[in-house]
Amino acid sequence: MRVLIIKTSSLGDVVHALPVIDYLHQVCPGVEIEWVLEERFVSVLEHNPRLTRIHVIKTPKWRKAPFSRETRHDLRELRMSLREKPYDLLFDIQGNLKSGLLAWLSAAPKRLGFSKEALQEKLNAFFTTRQIPFRNSDYHAMDRYLRVISVPFGKDYVGMNLTGTIFSAPHDEAAADSFMAGLPGNGLVFFFQVGTTWSTKLWSPQGWCELAKKIAARYPDSTILINWGSAEEKELGEQIVREAAGSAQLLPWLRINELIPVIRRVDLVIGGDTGPVYLAAAVGTPTLSYYRATSAARYAPRGPNHRAIQAQMSCAGCGLTSCERNDICCASITVETLFEAVTDLMT
Fold first, then answer.
1. What is the mean pLDDT of the chain?
2. Which one of 38, 200, 249, 290 has the largest count of C-beta atoms within 10 Å of its C-beta?
3. Which domains, and CATH codes, for the chain?
4. End-to-end distance of the chain based on CA atoms, in angstroms?
5. How many angstroms separate the CA atoms of 149 and 90, rounded?
6. Would you state the pLDDT for residue 253?
7. What is the pLDDT of residue 185?
8. Cis omega (within 30 of 0) on the bond before 43?
9. 92 within 8 A of 101, measured Cβ to Cβ
10. Would you say 229 and 250 are in contact if contact means Cβ atoms under 8 Å apart?
11. DSSP assignments along 147-214, one per residue
């Protein structure tokens, strides 16, 4: 059987979708799985031996020059690769207009996706041939992807032991070994993911600084690594380094393929609703995550090695990207609550 999965972005959502690979191989041994993915997230999947092929799309680049010769060439190549061999099933677990057009471009006769009420971009439903409704129990993002995948096979994913492993290149693993060997401390290694996409997902700079100082006092031989992806995040990281009195250090700017093996080697990743937290869960690293505008029940890593803190607001999980009560919401996640979870996980 040949299957095409369309899950193009974002980083966290792609990681949440990884267990569908395991599900398909368990219910259909010998299945050939291909995946459509944005270029910047290829590192998550490119070394996975259970995938037959990855079809790379370059949406940001194409949007900048939609009628250029290079864009037209890329789209022709994509169409040819998607139609090279017929697919028995196509699963659109992205659910927007772009993924719908990709599904149509494949010419797959059976295209399964989300039911219309679950779609943010309703036009997607015109491009799927079967829309799968969610059950009340299909609340977590991972469960929703598995629900769509599982229906045509008639085997419920509930109760199955499913994993979403990420594989890295040997040279990236070796580079991470070398970096970790050079850390000054010989104790626990904590990883702070201070940045994310929305302001309503962020925590306060002072909160991060106070948490770093508490961790340094409790675990004096530990090292706190701070990841950053923008000038603002780097500035916050530098502030934490100053206030943590030698226990914290900025990571160099890392690509996703370089980040994954580092995360694999630390003892705890702390952050909000953001990709590196989910990368950590996928590679088996404990996580402590907090949620404000988004829902811990829908996105947080699950299992005994993970803790999730939801903002203490009646409107928590609102989905707003900006809010006049942002400061109050942020303050409802306290340093004491996060630090208590840290000590619990490290016990």
1. 97
2. 290
3. 2-153 (3.40.50.2000), 170-345 (3.40.50.2000)
4. 46
5. 9
6. 95
7. 81
8. no
9. no
10. no
11. HHHHGGGT--STT----------HHHHHHHHHHHHT-S-SS-EEEEE---S-GGG---HHHHHHHHHH
* Residue 143 confidence (pLDDT) above 90: yes
User: What whole-number distance in Å separates Cα of residue 202 and Cα of residue 134?
Assistant: 30
CA distance linking residue 81 with residue 63, whole number of Å = 21
Residue 282 has, within 13 A of its CA and on its CB side, a CA count of: 28
DSSP strand pairing (248-250 vs 306-310): unpaired
pLDDT of residue 86: 97
The yes-or-no verdict on residue 93 having pLDDT over 90 is yes
314, 306 Cβ separation under 8 angstroms? no
| Chain segment 150-195, per-residue pLDDT in tens | 999 999 999 999 999 999 999 999 999 999 999 988 899 999 999 9
d(CA 230, CA 227): 10
pTM of the entire structure?
Answer: 0.95
Q: Which of 168, 172, 149 is nearest to 160 (CA)?
A: 149
Q: What's the average model confidence in pLDDT over 55-76?
A: 96
Q: What does the block give as tokens for 286?
A: 């404990």
Question: What tokens appear for 123 in the block?
Answer: 């036009």
Only one residue has tokens 């943010």, namely: 120
Render pLDDT for 114-134 as a digit per residue (tens, 0 to 9). 999 999 899 999 999 999 999
Give the burial class of 305: count Cβ atoms within 10 A of its Cβ; 0-12 exposed, 13-18 middle, 19 or more buried: middle
Amino acid at 86: P
Q: Does residue 245 carry a pLDDT above 90?
A: no
CA 116 to chain centre: 24
Mean pLDDT of 107-116: 98
Q: What is the pLDDT of residue 179?
A: 97
Q: Which amino acid belongs to residue 314?
A: S
Among candidate residues 204, 194, 203, 200, the one with its CA nearest the CA of residue 293:
200
Asked if 273 and 294 touch (Cβ cutoff 8 Å), the reply is yes
Three-state secondary structure call for residue 309: strand
Query: What are the angstrom distances between the C-alpha of 250 and each of 37, 114, 242, 274?
Result: 30, 41, 11, 18
